[in-house]
From TrEMBL, chain A:
Keywords: ATP-binding, Nucleotide-binding. SUPFAM superfamilies: P-loop containing nucleoside triphosphate hydrolases. Pfam families: ABC_tran. Residues 6-247 form the ABC transporter domain. The keyword Lipid biosynthesis does not apply. This is Phosphate import ATP-binding protein PstB 1. It comes from the Bacteria. InterPro entries: AAA+_ATPase, ABC_transporter-like_ATP-bd, P-loop_NTPase, PstB-like. It comes from Paenibacillus aceti.
TrEMBL record, chain B:
The keyword Protein biosynthesis does not apply. PROSITE patterns: ABC_TM1. This is Phosphate transport system permease protein PstA. It comes from Paenibacillus aceti. Residues 62-280 form the ABC transmembrane type-1 domain. It is found in: Cell membrane. Belongs to the binding-protein-dependent transport system permease family. CysTW subfamily. The chain crosses the membrane at residues 12-34, 66-87, 99-123, 129-147, 181-202, 261-280.
Length: 252, 295
């Protein structure tokens, strides 16, 4: 695989005594979409949240192993997680815009990271909204509350918010599962656009979605990585029987 | 007895009990207001009390109560906010945090006369602050602080985790997240709680008897120099508050119209507390709308 953006080596996540993720080694390529699939409780979301050290927030959680971005192991205790998270964006299952205006939702991150110039901020807001395909709908109402947007628009706004701090990687945790089919399709289109620029790692329960949007797919089961291959291969000719059973709907 | 009859019986009992409480409350409120409001006038609210003559007012006491309230809040709000933020966001669960929480709870249930005596021994005598507004404010801080800490803690823990995570995931520091994302969302809860706590300060008497004192010097309301002993703004002068005045005039008032004055002052006090409560609700609802409503 060329241009590896992020890779994990022997990554395990524990919640107290329970091991939720077991010895995962995975490489994620730049400008590609990687889907993480598997039944509920297989550890795929936990794995995703450990990539930007979000699991640090959970009391009693512990991560072992290595997470490499370039030549830096970000699971090192010395890593500045605040700086790290600027490089890794995240989008959640439920849209969670800040209780602020549309403009402020996007400008909040860049301004904190040192951009004070109003013109520059305006430009970032516009570019981010254009990339998130939300500019046309919101350009005349940037000062309105973000909560006045529809669910799908809110999710696009959350994506715009995360790309505004110019990360290289975007983590998505079932980003369209709380949306209606039309909004969901829009988010999928958006993912296809964004992959020209970002390394996208997406957790999804929706097999069709994984097949449609991703280049590579990893199948998780009970905290272990069962199979990792090109999405085509996984969905047409999986090498492991358990993968075959899962994608053909025999369990999960 | 059938299940249906039992159910009806239970409903009847509960409604009766609730009715009794409402009646007692309404009776009390009505009694105080009816007895007192007749005596309340602009003159009554603004003029100084008389020791032996008729026609004294409660002006200085009303001012003292308000001033003490402001002073107490200036001390309590930053301390309580800080401690509340620490308890909710920084303290790691464990023995020490549990102990702090227990102490805070105990502090808030202290009898106020004990706090008053503590204030007399420590603040007034040992620290040498004397009977003063400042001593009173410190004593009131003792039981206002726990309330403030709990309110802040509740407010912050009510903020959806998704909001906090979204901010942290942008590479925003913890403090900035608390300040710019979490505090604004919890502001309605915190503000409502603060105003309610303020209402309590207004009605407090026992803790002030030995700290803020039971007398007011002659106040010159044209003297705004806070260092002058006759200035109403001087925080180091003794100050009798409205609640203390009611107590004093009832037990040792010499003016022939003392009962009327006490009744009028009580009515004013109750109305003020009522206003605080209504204000708290109104502000809370207003802020809730401002921060969460889709416009």
């Amino acid at each position: 695989m060329q241009n590896i953006e992020l890779s994990t080596k022997d990554l395990s996540v524990f919640y107290g005594e329970k091991q939720a993720v077991k010895h995962i080694s995975l490489d994620f390529a730049a400008k590609q979409v990687t889907a993480l699939i598997g039944p509920s409780g297989c550890g795929k979301s936990t794995f995703l949240r450990s990539l930007n050290r979000m699991n640090d927030l959970i009391e009693g959680s512990r991560i072992t192993g290595e997470i490499w971005i370039g030549d830096e192991n970000i699971n090192d205790p010395k890593t500045d997680v605040v700086l790290l998270r600027q490089r890794i964006g995240m989008v959640w299952q439920r849209p969670n815009p800040f209780h602020k205006s549309i403009y402020e939702n996007i400008a909040f991150g860049p301004r904190y990271h040192g951009i004070r110039d109003r013109k520059k901020l305006d430009q970032i807001v516009e570019e981010s909204l254009i990339k998130a395909a939300l500019w046309e709908e919101t350009k005349d109402r940037l000062n309105q509350s973000a909560l006045s947007l529809s669910g799908g628009q809110q999710q696009s706004l959350c994506i715009a918010r995360s790309i505004a701090v110019s990360p290289s990687i975007i983590l998505m945790d079932e980003p369209s599962s709380a949306l209606d089919p039309v909004s969901s399709a829009k988010i999928e289109e958006l993912i296809a656009e964004l992959k020209q620029e970002f390394c996208i790692i997406i957790v999804t329960h929706n097999m069709q979605q994984a097949a449609r949007v991703s280049d590579r797919t990893a199948f998780f089961l009970m905290g272990e990585l069962v199979e990792y291959d090109d999405t085509n291969m996984i969905f047409t000719n999986p090498s492991d029987q358990r993968t075959d059973d899962y994608i053909s709907g025999r369990f999960g | 007895m059938s299940a249906k009859t039992k159910d009806k019986l239970a409903t009847a009992v509960i409604v009766t009990l609730a009715g009794i409480i409402v009646l007692v409350m309404a009776g009390l409120l009505g009694f105080i207001l009816v007895r007192g409001l007749g005596h309340v006038s602009f003159h009554f609210l603004t003029s100084a009390p008389q020791t032996i003559k008729e026609g004294g007012g409660i002006g200085p006491q009303l001012f003292n109560s308000l001033f003490l309230l402001v002073l107490t809040m200036i001390i309590t709000v930053p301390l309580g906010l800080g401690a509340g933020i620490y308890m909710s966001e920084y303290a790691k669960p464990g023995k020490i945090t549990d102990t702090i929480r227990l102490i805070v709870e105990v502090l808030s249930s202290f009898p106020s006369i004990v706090v008053g005596l503590f204030g007399l021994l420590v603040i007034v005598n040992t620290f040498g602050l004397g009977f003063s507004l400042f001593s009173g404010a410190l004593a009131l801080t003792v039981f206002n602080l726990p309330l403030m800490v709990r309110i802040t803690e509740q407010g912050l823990s009510g903020v959806p985790a998704a909001q906090k995570e979204a901010s942290l995931a942008l590479g925003i520091s913890k403090w900035k997240t608390i300040k710019s994302i979490m505090l604004p969302i919890s502001m309605p809860v915190i503000l409502t709680g603060t105003i309610l706590a303020a209402g309590r300060v207004f009605g407090e008497a026992a803790a002030l008897l030995f700290t803020a004192g039971m007398s007011s010097p002659r106040l010159d309301f044209t003297n705004w120099n806070p260092l002058s002993p006759t200035s109403p703004l001087n925080p180091f002068r003794p100050a009798e508050t409205l609640a203390v005045h009611i107590w004093k005039i009832n037990s040792e008032g010499l003016a022939p119209d003392a009962p009327q004055i006490a009744a009028g002052a009580s009515a004013v006090l109750i109305l003020m507390v009522l206003i605080f409560n209504l204000l708290a609700r109104w502000v809370g609802r207003l802020m809730m709308k401002k921060f969460t409503a889709a416009k």
